[in-house]
Amino acid sequence: ASRFRFAGEITKSQKIYYVNGLEIMNQTCNEFLHVPYPDPVYGNLYLKFRIMFSFRIIDPVRFFKKTVRNTSVYDFMGSASSPKMPFLEVQDHMEEALNICASRYKMPFPQLISNKSKLKDTVNEAVSKLWLEQRGMVVESIALTELSLDENSRKRVEEFDSAKIFADDPDALKALVALGFTEAMKSAASN
Question: If DSSP states are collapsed to H, E and C, what string results for the chain?
């Protein structure tokens, strides 16, 4: 009799979900990110890079409560050419995570590649409210790939490094002056 009240549909259903408890690896995108970085040594730099990360679902109940119920993790993640959440969320929080690396850990930009554990911690901190608290997910590992500077930032770093070498080593400064003097003499002799 109750079937007639619910248009012939079963009023209760049970579903079984499979949750991959393993690390879901190689989440990447084909596009470069362009992010300002407040480097503690060189000042404001502009970085260009791609990110690759992995994540893990540590609370499957929370994950399924907050995501569409008729989906798979693959549907949720997308692909490298068409990324979806959570890649776009990590991408959106990279500037915040990099600011934490610079301000809290005083990390110069060359160390961003080698300090993966601190970078992972700062990304988790940046996305924790959205990921851990709402979806039961955490970033397991993250890497910046193809990290480079824009042209102005690269020039600033080179000038700073050159100035630092000459400030720290008076003999190098003397050699530079002698080289400049020699070049000036050659130039004057060619006139």
Answer: CHHHHCCCCCCCCCCCCCCCCCCEEEEECCCCEEEEEEECCCEEEEEEEEEEEEEEECCHHHHHHHCCCCCCHHHHHECCCCECCCHHHHHHHHHHHHHHHHHHHCCCCCHHHHCHHHHHHHHHHHHCHHHHHHHCEEEEEEEEEEEEECHHHHHHHHHHHHHHHHHHCHHHHHHHHHHHHHHHHHHHHHC
Residue 124 and residue 132 in contact, taking contact as beta carbons nearer than 8 Å: yes
Task: Please report, as a single letter, which amino acid is at residue 163.
Answer: A
- Computed from CA positions of residues 47, 80, 145, 39, in that sequence, does the dihedral angle turn out positive or negative? positive
Task: Measure the CA–CA gap between 146 and 112, rounded to whole angstroms.
Answer: 12
State the Cα–Cα distance between residues 174 and 166, nearest whole angstrom.
9
Q: 10, 29 in Cβ contact below 8 A? A: no
Express each pLDDT in 42-85 by its tens digit. 999 999 999 999 999 999 888 877 765 555 555 555 555 555 66
Would you place residue 40 in the very low, low, confident or very high pLDDT band (cuts 50, 70, 90)?
very high
